Each structure stands twice: as C-alpha cells, then as structure tokens.
Automatic annotation (TrEMBL):
Alphabetized Pfam families for the sequence: Gly_kinase (PF02595)
Alphabetical list of SUPFAM superfamilies matching this protein: Glycerate kinase I
Protein name: Glycerate kinase
Record key words, sorted: Kinase, Transferase
Similarity comment text for this entry: Belongs to the glycerate kinase type-1 family.
NCBIfam families: glycerate kinase
GO molecular function ontology, one term from the record: glycerate kinase activity
Biological process, per Gene Ontology: organic acid phosphorylation
Recorded coiled-coil stretches: none
Amino acid sequence: MKVLVAPDKFKGSLTAAEVASAVAAGLADVHPAAVVVHKLPVADGGEGTIDAAVAAGYERVRVPARGPTGAPVTASYAIRGDTAVVELAEASGLHLLPGPPQPLTATSAGTGDVLAAAIQAGCRRIVLGIGGSACTDGGAGMLTALGARLLDDAGRELPPGGAALSRLASLEMPRLSEVDIELASDVDNPLYGPHGAAAVYGPQKGASPGDVAALEEALRHWASIAGPEFASRPGAGAAGGVGFAAMALLGARMRPGIELLLDLLGFDAALTGATLVITGEGSLDDQTLSGKAPAGVARAAAARGVPCVAVSGRCRLSAVQLANAGISAAYALTDLEPDPARCMVEAAPLLRRLTHRVAIDHFSR
C-alpha cells in the first residue's frame, strides 16, 4: 500500500516537511512493513513555498535583499534548471518588520531584488508566490528594484511605500529580459474599491481608517498611470497590489496558488499508485475551502480517484463541508490534547500519535 503525504505547514509550530515526517513516522509505528510512504510537502504560494520547492528537489539560493522597511535581509529563491520559485514573504513579509507596522511606507522592493537575482542567474520561468506581505505599495517597490523609475511632477524619484504613489506623475519602465512569470495566489481581490488591497488587507498590516483612505487614493492614481485595465482583474489586489504590478507591467499570469504549486512539485507523478492521500494544515476552517492547500490537494486526488484525509491542529469544518471539499475524514491534535498551547508546543509528537488513528482507520484490514 502506498500513501502520499502532502501537507502544508502547521503555522507557528511545524513546517510542511516536519508535518510530513511526523505523519510518516506515525504510519510506520502501526504498519512498519505494509505501508510505503511518499512525502511531498506542499504550499499555496504563501510562507513555506520555498521550503516546499526545496523538499521537492529544487536548490535553495540565498541572496541579499531589502526588507519591507528597506533594512537589509537575507532572502532566498529556489531553482531547478531555468525555473525559479520566488516567495514574496521571504523579503517583503509582514513577519520581517523590525517594529510596528508601517502601512504607508512599507515596500515590496525586496521581492524585486530576489526576482532580479533569479533573472540574472538565467531563469526564464519564474513562479512568484504572493502572500503574507507587509506592504500596500501596488508592487511599485518591486518594479523599482527591476529598474523602473517613478517620478513626481518635478522629476524626482518617489520614496518607498504606497502613500507616495499619490504624487506619481510619470513612470519609466525599462525593457526586461524575456521571462515568463506566473503568480501563485489564492487571493482574487481587485486592486482598489471596497474589496481591494487597502480596504480588505490594509488593517491587517496596521493601517488606520485614515491610512486606508490615503492608500486607496494612491492606488487608484497608481493604476491610472500604470494600467487601469488591470486594476479590476482578480488577484490585482494580492500582496498589497503586487499582483497588479506583475500583471500590468511584467506580463505575469495569475493561477490559483495550490494548483500551480502542485504542478510545479510533481504531485501527479507522486500520486501514481497511491491508495490514500494525507494532507493537512494548522487549522481546517472556512479559509481552507477558499483555495488553501488541503482543499487543492483533495481536489487533485479526487480527480485521480484517490481518497484523501486531513490532519490538523484544529478542525472547525463540519463533516458535510469536509466531504464537499473532497476530504473523507479529518483528524485534529485537539482530539488528543484540548489545550491549544500544548498542541502548538508538542505538535510533532502529538501528530505522530494522531496518525496512529489514521493508520488504524484506513489500513486495519
């Protein structure tokens, strides 16, 4: 019997690779000889995307970049052949802010630094995972790192951040090397408006109501110059507008993050011969149903007629919701340990024990 273990991370406690290892160990405890486990950690374009690519055989390349405040950070991308995987959160993530959020001035320049390094290394296909950003700068910072110039009416370059875009008078975009960019994201928001980058995600990045209004005005002005026809496209508001800049000025194409990553990681090949797929993430909830990794894995498994179960830290979905997502059963750490704090701290051993239940339920005959 072959089991494909394809989980996302348990955020705050285990990486996707650590989840896969704990599940594999739990299966081996119960059926040491009868079950062959293939581990394929996955991601949906957010944090953990580089780790998933490396686990699938890509090489990690570390590069200097600017963080969301402009301070230097060390970021990385993953490479195999002429394909690179870039994760926005590596250089422009909210977790990289050294202090309080800076919603008006945070920049995506570091993501551009990483893209530039991958292009210079000869990559001609780039998968850009956009999630977890600290900025709402419409992707302007990313473009400046690739050589663009954003000028005010006096010909001066604008400072970093979304708020400054309200003063934009002209945009000079250099000719870039031929490169195919695919955006991996589960966000379908437009750039601006009540469902846009500032209104929906600005408060999560520390924006006050006044900041949201300023960013909204700035993004509208930015779009009027950079490409108004792209502002309403699904995903234009992803990562504070990085989706917009990538589509409007870099010719990028948007795809659902988990769908794109499963293709990239070789999910179909790994699934061959499997009798069960085990996926999971830290919390199975309503967000899971909106394009997160476990739902994507279950959907891909169902297309091949392979049943799928999920493990998690906690599960807030009903049996009906799970079934509709293609997940036949869900197992949560809170089934073993009701204290969420202990579940976070002791996630690996608890998950190993929890997988015993999976093995007994599905391979007891």
